[in-house]
Amino acid sequence: MTILAEARTFVGGTWVTGDEVVSVENPADETHVHDVTVTPPAEVQRAITDARRTFDQGLWADLPAADRARVLHEFIDYIEGSAESLVPTLVAEAGQPTRFADITQLRAGVGLARQTIDLYLSMKHEESSPVPVDDLVRGRVALSIRRHEPVGVVAAITPYNAALIMGFQKLIPALMAGNSVILRPSPLTPISSLVFGMAAEAAGLPPGVLSVIVESGTAAAELITSDPAVDMVSFTGSTLAGRKILAQAAPTVKRVSLELGGKSAQIYLPDAVHRAAMGAAMVVMSTAGQACVAATRMLVPQDQKEQVLEAVSAAYSSIKVGPPTSSEAAMGPVISAAQRDRCERIVEAAEKSGGKVVCGGGRPQQLDRGYYFEPTVLDVGDNANPAAQEEIFGPVIAVLGYRDLDHAVEIANDSVYGLSGQVYGADVATAVGIARRLRTGAVNVNTTVFSAYAPSGGYKQSGLGRERGPDGIREFQEVKHMSIGELAR
Q1: Cβ neighbours, 10 Å, residue 204
Q2: Closest to 104 in 3D by CA, of 91, 115, 116
């Protein structure tokens, strides 16, 4: 495989070589993938300074939206044309199957990016409001205007499990709105994100409008989330990290948009239980359960639970686990030894709390290298079990029984999280009624959609704000009201 060979980082329109390196490991076989140099602290500060300068001077923000769109389409063209090296890079650094890297990350990411530009151009960003009635200045207001303006300098922090598509999801709306952006990818998967710097250079983005920084720890992330020159932080990752970012952003009262953890429920009405095996497979296929929206709690009628456990276990037993480059493998590794260890700890805790391993529960015996964990089915007696409460981020699903639909809703809402959910039922009206009662930012009823036009985001400890859709674009904008009248004589 030929991967992206770039080892430098992109700051203020120039490529920077640091003294330290991030050594990227392939989670599928524990081999060395590539070294990327760490962005030196002084260069991280320069990224902030240059972003501030370019924004304040209006080098990008003051361009007509059509001109920004033209440059960003060229930006996307470059990334789309890099598929030959970009897809193998995604496979090697994240251990994802080639199909997922190609279709879900690259192709869907490119489609999402272009849709986002179209959506932005279709929206009104300055419009007249009804003339207000104000007793203090009655008759002096001739025009009332509401403007949506760029926030300013945005720090975008992306996760390891979907570095490319999450990069598109943050960068395109932020840049289309006229902001300057500093992108900091996960230290576990930094290589693929360097393509955004290459694309910025190729498309002629003004220097300083986009920087891509890399680090091995969290010092740079702490700087860009706390520096007064940064106006907004857009973060996707764990709830624990999200809490830290909120604390770091608080002293300067930055805008913060967070897409955090989840413990989503998939609810099967009695007439849809036959669909459970397929729904369970979708949790672990391609991502090995490493998705914040993964529906890792399966809720089924109590009197049908045994047959569901049997069907789901049969489905999981048939999933071929192995290297993502293998045409036979349907599921690859988790990202690291630490993440595999977490899966083991959660399964052990589930058993101690009365849960039972019905399928899987450990490391595949035939794979002596790589961070693999078996697709695992847990029979969980109640929602207090750790496997039903904690986000695992691995190929582990907990199956719970419910007495009636009210009980199903109660179980689904009994979580500190509220990112996503699923409801399956032949009686669509009943299924939609259940969906309306779920305290979660998105609910899929018998289907799913991922589009620039459809928002996502969390309730409760699953986050703040929205990504995608008109609401996702507005996250990167401030609202200004202007009242205009003639000068009194």
Answers
A1: 11
A2: 91
pLDDT at 139: 64
Annotation marks residue 344 as catalytic: no
CA neighbor of 269 nearest in space, from 137, 435, 127: 435
- List, in order, residues 6 or more apart from 242 with CB less than 8 Å away: 235, 258, 260, 463
Spans of all domains in the chain: 9-260+463-481, 265-452
In angstroms, the Cα distances linking 322 to 1, 329, 347, 369 are 17, 5, 21, 10
Which position among 25, 259, 467, 475 bears the catalytic label?
259
Read off the pLDDT of residues 417-428 as tens digits, 9 standing for 90 and up: 999 999 999 999
Q: Using the predicted structure, report yes or no on whether residue 195 has a pLDDT greater than 80.
A: yes
What count of other Cβ atoms lies within 10 Å of the Cβ of residue 437?
15
CATH 3.30.590.10 fits 265-452, yes or no: no
**pLDDT higher than threshold 90 for residue 319:** yes
**Residues 6 or more apart from 383 whose CB is under 8 A from it?**
297, 389, 400, 411, 414, 415
Instruction: State the fold for domain 9-260+463-481.
Output: Aldehyde Dehydrogenase; Chain A, domain 1 (3.40.605)
Q: Would you say 69 and 117 are in contact if contact means Cβ atoms under 8 Å apart? A: yes
DSSP state of 376: E
Q: 373-416 pLDDT, tens per residue?
A: 999 999 999 999 999 999 999 999 999 999 999 999 999 999 99
Question: Is 460 in a helix, a strand, or coil?
Answer: strand
130 against 464, higher pLDDT: 464
Q: What is the C-alpha to C-alpha distance for residues 268 and 279, in angstroms, rounded to an integer?
A: 10
3 state SS of 155 = strand
Nearest to 244 by CA among 268, 260, 228, 230: 260
